[in-house]
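Message: Study each token:
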Amino acid sequence: MRAAPERASTQVWAPWLRATHWALVAAVAVAWFSGEALLQLHELAGYAALALIAGRCIGGWLGGRHARFRQFVRSPAQVRRYAAEVLARREKRYLGHNPLGGWMVVALLATVVVVGVTGWMYSLDMFWGLAWVEWLHRSLAWTLVALIALHLAGVAFTSWRHRENLVAAMFSGRKRPREPGDAD
């Protein structure tokens, strides 16, 4: 019996990018679930998240094609156009991030940075015990949870719309090749 031919695929996400993505997922999860009960672990996870984002930002400027911010952070006009195409159910498939996904990356990274910085501020004598710092840290952590939920919904929706498992692609780094009508 002959094995079924493997579907063609193309490398999109580099190993360093996928490792950074999943390590950041783990760091945020550890920080969230450890909280005040395991404060030292919470702080270490927060610092790890900040270090991972610093590395991701370097990759965003110097990394490969689909890792670079300039490739996937689109103008507001392009994002509005793409959102209208999604609502009309005629959006193009992107090999990398689509315009909404690109801005979600920026929102997630920025929110994790501000959550991490406010957590660090709370550990300093000059900010220790200030209610507004704790409130800001907690509010931003909940904002991050909301963004993660939107991100997961967007991944599920886009996977369904384009019949492509984006979670598997973030593990393997591979997606089906560009097809006629796909966007860059």
